């Protein structure tokens, strides 16, 4: 293939170099377009055809349903690695040795407390606040308690910021849930692992010793791994673009949490369970809801179906579907919405509307069923997604800053009024 793309505008032809990735993805490098053409730009709402950066973190092939972190397949990582190892891999590029992992975890534990005044902020939230709103505010508030900015040219400064957020974020996640449930705020322990501490902080009751259920632990670990990164999705792009203004890591992550909240992105896991419950309450008639999803006059969408990039099975959904069966079985939980979900999937996979548009179950379709079996409230589902996505956001922020990427600032094509003179209020 030629290494050059040619663009003809009127009489003029312009040449642009092609950029090739390690998996042979090809992009046209249009950096010089506006200058060379005297002002022509590209327009691509939703960035469906636009690469915002080059990245060495996550590879995904939506046509074939492939997802890899730093070259390792999601299937292998979900089966063989644990979440903290995956976090290290995403952030620093290589799987850690035992020594590196121990140091990483120790440094995280050293930072796994938050300023006690954070409790006053939590106290001020109404109990019925959405946990994503609380989490995003608390993450932003961390900036006030840890004001020093990160010198990105200092490896030590970067590392310290990373272990700080990795340590404090699970505390904020757990406290967000405890606030909603009216439980006293607690802390983890140095004697147990990262995921175990998340569970202890979330579920421990004030009047009993908390015992880790290994089935729940393994399932949570797997879910966090599956959510850990997904290249340039909405929230990650938000983290990168906010960070590109040299806003700090905590502020950038807080913005990412807000982006994740929406039902078209991470908020879909909550929306899926609410949808399945509504179908159940309506008599379990999946055909009726399939009809609604296909009706262009009806705003209803089959939540947990479809993906901007996957035009095949989301590999994460395949793993989660198996895990949902196992976890519910192991915990002895019978959840009728699992059957409704399977029924919907079955119908969608053979329905012309869904087949033609290549709409398959995504990561959010089955995850809520597992979270609910773990006794996590529905409004907390997207918070759990955020906990899993944290290492991905950190890795992408770090990569963006180390590569000294310019501030993200798209252009537009203006379609408003042309110049018109101001008219005084008494003349309008
Ligand atoms: N139910 C019914 N129709 C759908 C759905 C759905 N869930 N998803 C897409 N379509 C239709 C859509 O109406 C359009 O039809 P047409 O070509 O006739 O206009 C076509 O499929 C293409 O959809 P699109 O909205 O142009 O695709 P997109 O890439 O802009 O949107 C999406 C991707 C994920 C926002 C969308 O599929 C959706 O809204 N899904 C439901 C929400 C959801 O599950 N989100 C979680 C995504 S995975 C977790 C994450 O990484 O965030």
Task: Describe what this molecule looks like in 3D.
- By secondary structure, this protein is mostly helical.
- The chain has helices at 33-37, 74-80, 83-92, 98-110, 118-124, 131-145, 155-181, 194-203, 214-227, 234-243, 249-261, 268-281, 286-294, 315-331, 336-349, 352-356, 364-373, 381-402, and strands at residues 4-9, 12-20, 26-28, 58-61, 66-69, 72-73.
- Helix 10 (234-243) packs across helix 18, helix 11 packs across helix 18 (381-402) and helix 12 (268-281) crosses helix 17 (364-373).
- The longest helix is centred in the middle third of the chain and has 27 residues, at 155-181.
- The chain is globular and about 80 Å long.
- The N and C termini lie far apart (61 Å).
- 39% of the residues are buried.
- The model has no long low-confidence stretch (mean pLDDT 94).
- Carboxymethyl coenzyme *A is lined by residues 46, 230, 233, 264-266, 268, 293, 301-308, 357, 359, 362-364.
- Residues 46, 230, 233, 264-266, 268, 293, 301-308, 357, 359, 362-364 line the site of carboxymethyl coenzyme *A.
Radius of gyration from the alpha-carbon trace, in angstroms: 23 Å
Oligomer: single chain
Low-confidence stretches: none
First-last Cα distance? 61 Å
What is the total tally of β strands? 6
Beta-strand fraction estimate: 5-15%
**Helix/strand/pairing class, anyone?**
mainly alpha
> Ligands bound here?
carboxymethyl coenzyme *A
Q: Strand sequence of the main sheet, in spatial order?
A: 1-2-3
The major β-sheet equals: 3 strands, antiparallel
Global outline: globular
Produce the secondary structure layout.
Blueprint: E1 4-9, E2 12-20, E3 26-28, H1 33-37, E4 58-61, E5 66-69, E6 72-73, H2 74-80, H3 83-92, H4 98-110, H5 118-124, H6 131-145, H7 155-181, H8 194-203, H9 214-227, H10 234-243, H11 249-261, H12 268-281, H13 286-294, H14 315-331, H15 336-349, H16 352-356, H17 364-373, H18 381-402
Helix pairs in contact: 2-9, 3-18, 4-7, 6-7, 6-11, 7-8, 7-18, 9-14, 9-18, 10-11, 10-18, 11-18, 12-15, 12-17, 14-17
This protein binds carboxymethyl coenzyme *A (CMC).
